[in-house]
Amino acid sequence: MMAAMPDAGDETLAQKLGVTAEDSAPEPTRHDPAPSPPAEARGGKSARSSRLARRRRVLLAVGVAAVLLSVGGLIGAAFVKSPAQLAAAPRRRPTR
Q: How far, in Å, CA of 54 to CA of 60, rounded?
């Protein structure tokens, strides 16, 4: 069902409240945030760049740790022999 349109003589709620079309029009909004002062002016780095720098440092630390562990594993494997390798190795005879 459609509501009946008010006659020209009827006073609408907006008119009763004294609201005009200019008052009820929405203000244009900006989609981009207000520019912040440069990082140097704030006395440090921005939060975004410090987060990115922290992630880079963590990634670098994980990479260095992985390299050190793998090199340590290779060095350790060079000195450890399996029982099969020990059994197959030629033995020297003891001398009198």
A: 10
Are residues 46 and 39 in contact, defined by beta-carbon separation less than 8 angstroms?
Answer: yes
The amino acid sitting at 20 is T
Angstrom distance (rounded) from CA 43 to CA 50: 13
Give the domain ranges of the chain: 46-79
User: pLDDT by residue (tens digit) across 51-89?
Assistant: 999 999 999 999 999 999 999 999 999 989 888 988 888
Contacts of 39 (CB under 8 A, 6+ apart): 45, 46, 49
User: For residue 36, which of 27, 47, 23 has the smallest C-alpha distance?
Assistant: 47
Are 53 and 45 in contact by the 8 Å Cβ rule? The answer is: yes
Burial class (CB in 10 A: 0-12, 13-18, 19+), 39: middle
